[in-house]
Amino acid sequence: MLIDRMQTLKPEDSRSHIRCPFQLEQSASKMFIHFSYGPKLLDDRQQARELMEECVERYIEPERRSLVLGSMDRYFPLSNLITVSVDDPETYRGACHRHDPEQQLFLGESASSPGLTKGRLPSGLWSVTLSVHSIVTDTCEYRLRIWTEDPTTDQSAFS
Amino acid sequence: MRWLACELHTHTNHSDGKQTLEELTAGARRLGFDCIALTDHNTMSGLKDRERIESETGLTIIPGMEWTTFYGHMVTVGSMSLAAADWRRATPGNIAEGVAEVHRLGGLAGLAHPYRIGNPVCTGCYWEFEIQDWREIDYIEVWSKTFAPIQADNHRAFGLWTELLNAGVRIAATSGRDWHEQTETDDPLSVTYLGLEERSDEPLTVAAAAMAALGAGRASVTIGPLLTMEVRSEAGRAYGIGEAVPAGANGFEARAQILFSVRQGLWELEPQPFRLLITGSAGTIAERTIEPADGDYALPFPPDASRPLWIRAELWGVVRGASVRIAFTNAIYFD
After folding, report:
1. With an 8 Å Cβ cutoff, are A114 and B46 in contact?
2. Is B192 helix (H, G, I), strand (E, B) or coil?
3. Domain identity same for B180 and B237
4. pLDDT for the residue A152
5. What pLDDT, in 10s, does the model give residues B281-301?
6. pTM for the full model?
7. Burial group, residue B311, by CB count within 10 angstroms (0-12, 13-18, 19+)
8. Are residue B178 and residue B263 in the same domain, yes or no?
9. Which residues of A touch B117 (CB under 8 A)?
10. Which residue of A has its CA nearest to B15?
């Protein structure tokens, strides 16, 4: 296992990147990234309404605010969003900008998960970046695990 | 001039889209587009089969990536290397560095849906980056989503574009559906037509010619007919969309051309007398009604009109009960 980390995030962590570097000692044939976070949704309607009031104040022109506030339910439930991007020792290997709170991703020589670029997995300093776009719940816990499939031992990571 | 029907803002399953590039391009073909830009969020991995799909469908695919940052979404298009610019380094004050990097990599950069509601509804969707010099920005997506002319956030974006033109900034305006999935809709769909120059000396690929057009502001946006325009001076010279009329040229007339025959059967407007107008920094300087048929119209500038900084043509009409801008050209400038 190259990385196995858990962390609890708070609303004030919104709009920040968490860089998770790791050393890949020898080139690999396949790399697995499992990322999950929760809770995904803000179920507390009162909290959601308060967040929406701030949001509308900030982004909607004054004459349309009451209209948007009157139909704010269409934006519910509000949700947390954290996305994954990957850098190998040389280049950017893409991002998985999607809402799924659990993502089982892989990179490989001939194929990769959608969002990530296929190609060789060179040894050196890699990094996975978690981009915390928004945390709306009081706390949100994530777990990130990264490991490789060694070309010589051929153990399937998913088995 | 060949006008290429483009959809400049699309997504696939490589980000949060619910469609493959095959499904997206097939859908674009059915809707009469000649060209799409694939602008997945923060990745270009969806372009791995670009060449094969282009040759199978005949559709031009412009490579792109939408910087999906915490402070704004920026569409970047026109180069396969755009992912080398690091979207994660963007801070509210340094977007100029990102734009410069996009340019260095051979791409163009535009504001995506700058007034869409932001966090936590749509994270980073509202443009909050400070821009010191608007001349560095290539375009603004002033029409987002479907039935774009009635959307309040699009009105604000259109207003921003007009304000910048009035301030002397020469900047293009586009539409982009922000197309994430193949769903049926009755809503009017926007098309950005890009004007491709005929060049025999140095033939460009269609994608490169389209990017040259966007960079030069040779664009016209519509939910139906294709509206184009040129300005003729007294001396008989003609200046097209995106061009600048040099100082010294005088005595103008605008010539608008409207093609209702484009993308036939793929859009519909209730028959009515439409309002064609030439407007700009000096207000509306010419106006007439037109019938829904292909046509060329001469709109002379009134003799007492002061020389504008810029003009554009607009087509207005009633769509689903609302009086809306159906089409608009990008600007012609006056030095």
Report:
1. yes
2. strand
3. no
4. 53
5. 999 999 999 999 999 999 999
6. 0.96
7. buried
8. no
9. 55-56, 59-60, 68, 75
10. A97
Q: Which two three-digit tokens encode residue A87?
A: 């850098």
**B4 phi/psi in degrees, rounded to 5:** -95, 125
Q: What are the tokens at A111?
A: 């194929």
Here the ipTM equals 0.94
Tell me which amino acid residue B19 is. Q
pLDDT tens-digit map of B114-172: 999 999 999 999 999 999 999 999 999 999 999 999 999 999 999 999 999 999 999 99
Q: Which domain holds residue B235?
A: 224-334
**Which pair of tokens denotes residue B211?**
């990017």
- Which residue is listed with tokens 């030069």? B216
Q: How many helices (H) and strands (E) does chain A have?
A: 2, 8
Sign of the alpha-carbon dihedral angle for B146, B151, B157, B161 = positive
Please list every residue in chain B whose beta carbon sits closer than 8 Å to the beta carbon of residue A136.
120
| A104/A143 same-domain check | yes
Per-residue pLDDT, averaged over A115-133, amounts to 98
Whether residue B83 is contained in a domain is answered as yes
Q: How many Å apart are CA B30 and CA A84, to the nearest integer?
A: 34
Residue appearing with tokens 């990322």: A35
* pLDDT tens, position by position, A61-86: 999 999 999 999 999 999 999 999 99
Closest residue to B16, CB basis, from A79, A91, A98:
A98
Tokens of B115: 């007034």
